[in-house]
Each structure stands twice: as structure tokens, then as C-alpha cells.
Amino acid sequence: MDAPDPGDRLGLRAVNIPEMEVLIGYLEAVNARTSEYLGQLTEDDLWRVPDPAQTGPSKVVSLRHLITHKNHHQGQIDFIRGLQDDVWDLPPGTGMALTP
Q1: Are 80 and 4 in contact (CB under 8 A)?
Q2: What is the DSSP string of 11-53?
Q3: For the purposes of burial, counting CB atoms within 10 Å of the CB of 83, is it exposed (0-12), middle (13-18) or buried (19 or more)?
Q4: What pTM does this model have?
Q5: How far apart are alpha carbons 72 and 70 in whole angstroms?
Q6: Model confidence at 32, in pLDDT bands (50, 70, 90)?
Q7: Which residues are CB-contacts of 45 (< 8 A; sequence separation ≥ 6)?
Q8: Nearest 10 degrees: CA dihedral of 91, 97, 98, 100?
Q9: Nearest to 66, CA basis, from 29, 23, 24, 37
Q10: Secondary structure of the chain: what % helix, strand, coil (to 5)?
């Protein structure tokens, strides 16, 4: 199946979104594993490059990148949800809705 055209509102509405329980379960599992990993890091660990044989960023630089990257994707998610639902609330309860 081809991916829907990002500008095609009907195509985006056809994207299968998992049930809320599945999404919440995934969120909880990822949160638990992330919290466990971060809880084990020392300050020295944060400044280490994961593989000294490779040139690459330290763990702290990678974590900063992940946080920033996630925030960009949240904007994309909100935009797509706004295309799928005429009254998508940004964020819920604020009354800020994307309208066609």
C-alpha cells in the first residue's frame, strides 16, 4: 500500500491508528526502559562517546538531540491530527483547534 499524500486529508484519515490502550502500553514500556537507563547513568557516562573507535557525539549530546527531535515530531503529529480531525484540540482542553 502506498503512503497517503501528506496534503490529502481523506488519505490521512484512512491511516490506521492503534487503539488507545496499545499506544498507552507502548508509552509506558518505553518510559520505564528509558527511566531505568537514565537512572543508571553517571555524570561521567553522559560525556562519554558510546564507541570510542567511532567519531560521534557523547551521550549527553545525543540525548539533547533526541529531545529536540521529538519536539519537532510532536508538531508534525499535531499537524497531521489536525488534518484528520476538523476540531483537533492543541493541546487538549485549550480550545485551540486546527480548522479547515
Answers
A1: no
A2: HHHTS----HHHHHHHHHHHHHHHHHHHHH--HHHHTS-S-TT
A3: buried
A4: 0.52
A5: 5
A6: very high
A7: 59
A8: 160
A9: 37
A10: 55, 0, 40
What are the pLDDT digits (tens) for 42-66? 999 989 888 878 778 888 888 888 8
Rounded CA-CA distance 38/31 in Å is 10
* CA–CA separation, 83 and 11 (whole Å): 10
Pull the grid cell for residue 57.
Answer: 557525539
What single letter denotes the amino acid at residue 64?
A: R
Q: State the DSSP code for 90.
A: S
| Residues 99/90, Cβ–Cβ less than 8 Å | no
CB 85 within 8 A of CB 11: no
CA angle 66, 69, 70 (to 5 degrees): 85
